[in-house]
Amino acid sequence: MSRVAELAAEYTRVRPRLVGVAYSIVGTLAEAQDVVSDCWLKLADADARERVLDVEAWAVVAVARRAVDVLRSARVRREEYVGPWLPEPLVDPGSPDPAERVTLDDTVSYALMVVLETLTPAERTTWVLHEVFGMSFPEIAAVVGRSPAAVRQLAVRARAHVTAGAPRVDVAAPEHRRVVDAFLGAVEGGDLAALVGLLDPDVVLTSDGGGLLGVARRPVHGPDHVARFVLGVRRKVAADERLVPLAVNGGPGFAVLRADGTTRFVCSITAVGDRVRRVDIVVAPAKLPRAR
């Protein structure tokens, strides 16, 4: 086997983890996959000059560096985004192709991805690499261009922001699924009272339409307002469209599929205890999965 073939085989093996690193930093799968593809070319070039002994370690650093650059550029574009900007939801692609797989730590819920959007690029990268991927502060310093001491401070600030912003999801998976099933049952039945009863007093609903009409351009707060908004969305679902439960970033959610198999929107539901704390709806076409 040639050296290039060896590199390609090893890069393919670690690709799901690399896409997970990039996705956790940039928040969209397409950009994450582009980052990983770009870094393959850099790896081949670097290895031609001096043999890369640990492909995975080299690639994680290279991917993280590139992802930081992409995130900084994306932040400028997102300032002009119409309405709230939500991360791209990850749903099971149902494909064995490594290019479509992502290895994401089960602690990186969709709600956490939303909170990570409030961090600076350096804070976000530090938190992701240290808390999720277990990298040391000196290693992260090489990625973000700061000293290890400065990176440690970034980690402290990022952890404080995440702790303050992310719901503490201490509910077991079966209980989470039960709450979501009850939520869907109330929605399907058009039961306003039952739906309000399932919502946390601090519930918030955010929808990302990418500028499409008919999508809330500000978050909706409170059980009554959120329940009425959700039931209004349900009434707009056509008779030939179907609601399909699925995992969103590893947690319970659902999608509405059109008759042709394309996705109309994906919804992530975050429960705390026996109540729904967050409802995040992604309608923007560029962030939706392809037809199944």
UniProtKB/TrEMBL annotation:
The keyword Transcription applies. Residues 11-75 form the RNA polymerase sigma-70 region domain. Pfam families: Sigma70_r2, Sigma70_r4_2. It comes from the Bacteria. The keyword Transcription regulation applies. SUPFAM superfamilies: NTF2-like, Sigma2 domain of RNA polymerase sigma factors, Sigma3 and sigma4 domains of RNA polymerase sigma factors. Keywords: Sigma factor, Transcription, Transcription regulation. Signal peptide: none annotated. Residues 111-161 form the RNA polymerase sigma factor 70 region 4 type domain. Belongs to the sigma-70 factor family. ECF subfamily. Interacts transiently with the RNA polymerase catalytic core formed by RpoA, RpoB, RpoC and RpoZ (2 alpha, 1 beta, 1 beta' and 1 omega subunit) to form the RNA polymerase holoenzyme that can initiate transcription. This is RNA polymerase sigma factor SigJ.
